[in-house]
Amino acid sequence: MPWTAGAGCVVEAGMETSRSNDPCTPSSAFGPAGPACDLVTVPTRQGLEAVDILRRGAAEAVGPVLHDDGGDTLGFLVPPGTAAAWDLPGSTCTETDGRGLRLDPEPPVEGSDWLVPPGEADLATDPAVLRRALGEAARTIEAADNCR
After folding, report:
1. I need a labelling partner for 66 at 20 to 30 A (CA). Which of 31, 38, 73, 123 fits?
2. Separation between Cα atoms, residue 73 and residue 39, nearest integer Å
3. Where is the composition biased (Basic and acidic residues) (predicted)?
């Protein structure tokens, strides 16, 4: 099932992923589609909180982040191979193989936009760091919701 980020980015699930030790290493095999990365998709509220947490830790901890202008999801670019072991409840990780995802400054899909553009971030967010930030974000949201 493809993940559509509102304004031009469709990431197809089930594609073969190039395995590499380098996060989002560009490969000539992918041509203009750009580097191979996986995409972690989370609900917007949790994702925005996680971006704040990551930025408080170190600005370079955040890779490019897509925002679905419909307000439903954020997508964090993570190194290829992350999807094989991603098991965080409330999120999904999709293999992209670099196809269908372009790291251009322009929004990749109509109806989406870069929350953190490629030129202002690392090539990918470290999955372990993202996992911790998403966990902290979920706890923060739960605490805020229980204070009512």
Report:
1. 31
2. 12
3. 96-105
Using CA atoms, how far apart are residues 75 and 99, in angstroms rounded to an integer? 16
Domain assignment of residue 99, given as a range: 3-146
The vertex-12 CA angle with 90 and 34, nearest 5°, equals: 110
Tokens encoding 77: 């670019």
Cβ atoms 88, 103 nearer than 8 A: no
For residue 105, which amino acid is it? Answer: P
Number of compact structural domains in the chain: 1
* Rounded CA separation 9/127 (Å): 21
Residue 114 has pLDDT above 80, yes or no: yes
CB count in 10 Å sphere of residue 97: 21
Task: Give the tens place of pLDDT for each residue, 121-137.
Answer: 778 899 999 999 999 99
